[in-house]
Each structure stands twice: as C-alpha cells, then as structure tokens.
User: What shape does this take?
Amino acid sequence: MKRHLLEAADLDRADATLVLDTAAQIDQALAGREVKKLPTLRGRTVVNLFYEDSTRTRISFELAAKRLSADVINFSAKGSSVSKGESLKDTALTLEAMGSDAIVVRHSASGAPHRLAHWVRGSVVNAGDGTHEHPTQALLDAYTIRRRLGRLEGVRVAIVGDVLHSRVARSNIGLLHTLGAEVTVVAPPTLLPVGVGSWPVEVSYDLDAVLPKADVVMMLRVQAERMNASFFPSAREYSRRYGLDARRMSLLDDDAIVMHPGPMNRGMEIAAEVADSVRSTIVEQVGNGVSVRMAVLYLLLGGNEPA
Amino acid sequence: MASSVEPARNEPPKSGAPSSPGALLSSADVARVVDRMAHQLIERAAASDPGSPNGGLSSLVLVGIPTRGAPLARRLAARVEAFSGTTVDVGIVDITLYRDDLRLRGVRALEPTVLPDGGIDDRLVVLVDDVLYSGRSVRAALDALRDLGRPRSVQLAVLVDRGHRELPIRADFVGKNVPTSRSQQVRVHLAETDGADEVLVTEGDIT
Assistant: This one.
C-alpha cells in the first residue's frame, strides 16, 4: 500500500482486494461482540479536516478511527481560523505540529488532498475533493457489491445520473475497473464530462435499455449545489428520463441491487419505494463504510512510526 | 511445571520419517507429542471440574492462534475426542490487531476469528500456539480474549517452548522444551500449512 489514499488509482488490484478482505475480517471479528473496539491504533491521532459539509463520511471516519482506539480531532472550516484567512497549508502544518498521524480531508477544490500530501509527513486520506475523487466511497461500494453478489469480476454495474459532478462516479469507475467489473454510465449528454470517451466504460443515454442487463444500479445524487448552469430542462423531466422508479426497478434481474451513495433526493433520482425496497443497499452501504474505513486506517497507519 | 510434562527422550529422529535431515521432531514425533498433550488436556480438565459427567471436557474450548495454532488446536481436539469420546469445541483468535509490534514489523493481512456458538463465557479456554518465545503473541491473545468474553480460566498449550520470555508468561502444556539461542530460528511445519509435519532449528536468519 502507498502511504496516502488520494484516488482509486492509488490501489492496484492486490491492494484493493487486501482492503476489502481486511474489512471483511474486521466485520466478522467485531460481529456480535460486546466490546466493539480494537486497540490497534492506540496513541495515534487522526484529524478529520472537513472544508465541506458532510454527515455520513465524517461520522464514519470518526467511528472507524475510534473503534481502532485512535484519538480523533474533528476540524470543520466553520468556526476555525479558516474564517480568519488561514490557508490549507498553514492549517495542515499546524495540525501536524500538534502530532497528527493521519489527515482525513474533504475539500471543495479538486486536488486539495494531493497538495496536502506534499506538505505533511503523515498519511493523507481523501474523503472527497470537489468533483474529482472519493476513494473510500468506492471501496465501500465495492465491498457492498461483493457481499451481496459474492463477486466483482464480470459484475455489470450501471452508474446513473450526474456523472459530470460526481467524485463518487470517478472513484467507482476507476476501482471497479481495477477489480474486473464492467461499468456502463447512463446520463444525459450534458451531465457527462468531455473526456468520458477515454474512460474504461460504456456510455448510454437510455436507462430503460441498460437496466435489464445490469447486476448493480448505482444512482448518483443530482448535485444542485455544483450546478451553476442549466444541465437539464426541469427536475420533472430529469426524473422521468433518468430517475429510478418502481416501473424501472421491475426491469431489473431478480438478484440485481440498487445502490446510492447518499444523501438521496427522494423523488428526484430515486423514488421512495425504490430506496426502501429489499433491493436497496443504501443503509447497508453506510454500515459497511465504517468497516472499510477501519481497514484503510489500519493498513495506512498500523505499520508506521508514530509522528 | 512445564518441564515435568516432557518425558526424557533423547533418541535421534527416526530414519525413514518424511522429514528433513536434522529435524528436531519428525512427523512421527509430532504425532506422539500431540497425543501426549491430548491426554494431559483430558487429565487436567477432569481435575479442574471433578464430578462433571464427561470429565470437564464439555466446558473446554481449544482456541488456536493463527497461523499454525489453528490447525494444532483442531488436531488436539480430534485426539482428545479419539481418547475420551467427547467432542471438544475449537476456535480461532486472530491477534494481528492486538499486536504491540505492528510498527516494527508492518501491517499484515488479517486471519479470521471464529468462536464456538455460545462464546467463551465461563468456559475453560486453552490457547494453542506452535512456538512459545517472547510471550508477546500470548499477551496479545489474552487481550483479544478479554474483548471476546470472560472465560472461567485460560491456559496455554504450545508444541515447542524455546525460552527467552520477555513477559511473565508460562505454558501449562508443553510438547517439547527446546533450549535455543536468540540467533537460532525454530520453525514448526504442519501438514495443513506446509505439506509435512516437522520441527526444525536453524542457525541465523535464513529465509
């Protein structure tokens, strides 16, 4: 494993499989235990450096670090010296001077974790940077698929929706390709990036045609906060063409699953009855996130000298 | 106490056994040692719980420490069953996440942790490992057990005790005591993991 986890491409097939296997062992070791805590990272400090709002990712990383007995410091840009104009670099160096061993960073600027990784000695984990990557989300999605379907090799995954703004899609495409799955992206042409032709994916504009051939449907959130232009005529029209409702769900294979990284816009990209159906892994994904992030923190920090 | 367990046996390894020349224990020796330890487990379980219908064996759990403690625990359980007619529960406790030397030796892949249905609360747990050396693996295993339940008592069975303890830990059941120097390596090979049973002592850090 490399020292940092910045993008899905940092993991080759062996590393990615090691993370998933480690997460499975941790899951199994902690299942049904009274004391859901391991002493592995005692004395290490993990800083959650969040420049963007987040509920599940920050809590998930916090819980993962705490279950491994690391000390956790939560830093959010609101209410910190960032509002006095402190730069990312100075903030990171300040945190490291106080003895942080790993920085989990979320930032609205794509590439911020890469810059950070050059400035600090500890490990940097990307928890989402702009429209670039969110590698631990891709790992927990792959873990969820493997648990539900028993394999990743040859699994047909449809990633549907706002691919243009989605770091989840970018990380998933990279990681799923590494692990041997076949990915099709489905989106209106305005929500696909210019360079999509160079990605290892099939491209489709017709959701109804893709669904019967998919083992996994991954719905993406329509990211209204990143849309400063009109990418589609109206929410209703988007929902009609690219939303997953009960009728579309009935086109799926019997064993196919429906995923969503959250937070959901119910009624927009996914209908409530789909989100709450037995095919949906949305709640499972959140639970798996903690195990996968424990595996990542263990593999990145376990063998290092403390700062 | 550990030394009383081992009978005086100074004969050289038997020729014809499928073991490397110079092996400390051949495959036949390993089988004999495991048999003897199984008998001792039966005796000790009976002594710890006099008057119980199957000699205290129903509360016994043999918990192997990966890698080679796990197949050893299964073998001991099979021999105990063969000698006593009572089935014995077996478990595995992976200690990787409890080690104190991760920083020195780096992270490694985890092994499964498996406990018998009903857990280890109020059971007689015997930890099983291949080689007892510094005692740090056993300390890690004791920490792991503490998080998994509250056994009535915990004992330790090892195939080879090579000395050089760094912690106040001793084994209750020892297959063979082997005086070694720290520069030597003691390697236990088992059919399940290495293709054949044998115990080797080599000089220096080969491999």
Observations:
- The interface with chain A takes residues 94, 97-98, 102-103, 105-107, 109-113, 143, 147-149 of chain B (CB under 8 Å).
- Helices of chain B lie at 27-48, 69-84, 102-105, 136-148, 191-194.
- Confidence is low (pLDDT under 50) at residues 1-17 of chain B.
